[in-house]
UniProtKB/TrEMBL annotation:
The lineage of its organism: Bacteria, Pseudomonadati, Bacteroidota, Cytophagia, Cytophagales. InterPro entries: RHF-like (IPR036567), RHF/RaiA (IPR003489). This is Sigma-54 modulation protein. It comes from the Bacteria.
Amino acid sequence: MNYTENYRGIKIDVQSVNLDISEAVQAEIRGSIDKLSRFTNVINAVDIYFKNEGQGASANRIVGMRVGIPGPDVFSEEKGDNWISLLKAVTDKNVRQLQKGK
């Protein structure tokens, strides 16, 4: 499932291979954008990808997020079990990168 959304003037592009993104995860994506917006007011776009890696008990979920800002973009990726907690983790990593860039 891939979808694009314009949220508060920020283009959000979500890519997920063979996965459906629930409304709860979509709401968390918007919350992540709100959090990132507190640290910079010039976000042009946010690209997020969700993917499963491996199979069975050793399967990992991966979430990556690229925040398009003037100058170099910030990017982070996290592996784990829960989509929402992974999304929060990559958001926090990107916030730290934005704070370093100021």
